[in-house]
Amino acid sequence: MMALTPGAADPEDKKIEIVGAGLAGLVCAIVLAKVNRRVVVRERHEDVGHRFRDDFQRLENWTADGNVPDELAEAGVAADFDHFGVTDGVVFDSRATAHRVHGSQPLFYLLRRGNATGTLDRALLDRARAAGVEVRFNDRVKRTAGNMILAGRPRRADLIAVGYVFDTTMADGAWLAFGAEIASKGYAYLLVHQGRGAVASYMFSGFHDQAEYLAATVSYFKRHAGLKMQKPRGFGGFRECPIAAHGDAGWKPGDGRTRGPRGIDYLVGKLGSNDTDVLGQAYRLSLPMRLLLPFARFHYRNPLQDRSCSHNNCNCVWCQHGAHEVADT
Ligand SMILES: Cc1cc2nc3c(=O)[nH]c(=O)nc-3n(C[C@H](O)[C@H](O)[C@H](O)COP(=O)(O)OP(=O)(O)OC[C@H]3O[C@@H](n4cnc5c(N)ncnc54)[C@H](O)[C@@H]3O)c2cc1C
Predict the structure, then answer these.
(1) Which residues pair with 110 in a beta bridge?
(2) Which of 35, 153, 162, 255 lies at 20 to 30 Å from 12 by C-alpha?
(3) pLDDT band at 177 (very low <50, low <70, confident <90, very high)
(4) For ligand 1, atom 50, which residue shows the shortest CA distance?
(5) pLDDT score of 268
(6) CA–CA dist 310, 200 (Å, integer)
(7) Nearest CA to ligand 1 atom 51
């Protein structure tokens, strides 16, 4: 994160406006306010976390040299939101063989997204306001002017996620699965924590068949993990997941765009022998992989061109044509 020098509060004409009260915008606002910048965050929706319905998300820890919540605290964002470190889980390879995985420290943290108390979004909003940031809701920015930081939205759909959050009587657990029938070039997961769960399919292609992939994912986890859902509520959205220039971000080990089933099964086998460092290694690319990156980036540079979408009253979770609200879910 960029180091900033604390200074006197800026005059009005030097105020910094941040477009978007998502994670990027709020963290940016907190960091700037802490060094006495006058910051206004402008958010088009009426509250934070509008894209989420109290869903679980995972804060990756396996790629960190230290502990991610400690890193966040160092950046001035104490982890005062609900979060829970997951050290154990089950990963199914593409043949549905189960591999138990254990990390000596949390592999990832489960956290909640949305606008409820305890969610990451609400905690960041409270922290930003406590630091003196003004947050304006229902304020859509149509034109850039002055000192403005754009933290508006993912620009394109590299990956879509569709799933359910639900209540359950299942015991806590974390399951991850690969397989062409449950997630096209991606993966599916099931997470359960204290009577609440989330099941989802993350896919890099085949977006139009999202409903079939989700149905297959639910049926898969019923068979292999004893999934029991009560009061399921659907969620979905898209995210940017670029193949980065240096392979130090965005390149996911479970990314089926760049690894075939054999590569994934190899990784999963390693994980099953508790070699969790293999995940970190997948981010620290070897020289041959670095040399291949330009080819991979060229090949995957245009991940979504869905000519089958009419863009007319469609409900595609990835739709980006901008003519209706679904585009901003
Ligand atoms: C279903 C799903 C599951 C995910 N799971 C995970 C996970 O497990 N782990 C993980 O690390 N990541 C996950 N992600 C990705 C993660 O949610 C995003 O990377 C993150 O929320 C992006 O934050 P952001 O601040 O960049 O963008 P956003 O959260 O999109 O925030 C941008 C904000 O800007 C506002 N805005 C846009 N345009 C304007 C405008 N003109 N004027 C005013 N305001 C504007 C929007 O309303 C929005 O509130 C998931 C994403 C989805 C959709």
Answers:
(1) 58, 84
(2) 153
(3) very high
(4) 239
(5) 78
(6) 25
(7) 239
Within a domain: 75: no
Residue that finishes a domain, picked among 127, 150, 173: 150
Q: Is 25 in the pocket of ligand 1 (CB under 6 A)?
A: yes
> Are residue 97 and residue 123 in the same domain, yes or no?
no
User: For residue 135, what are the domain limits?
Assistant: 11-54+114-150
Q: Which DSSP category does 174 fall into?
A: E
Cα 93 from Cα 258, distance rounded (Å): 16
Q: What is the pTM of this model?
A: 0.81
Last residue of a domain, one of 150, 178, 206: 150
Q: How many independent structural domains does the chain possess?
A: 2
Q: What is the CATH number of the domain that holds 135?
A: 3.50.50.60
Is any ligand 1 atom within 6 A of the Cβ of residue 44? yes
Within the chain, residue ranges assigned H as helices are: 23-34, 68-74, 120-130, 210-225, 261-272, 277-283, 287-299
Closest to 275 (Cα-Cα) out of 68, 102, 60, 90: 102
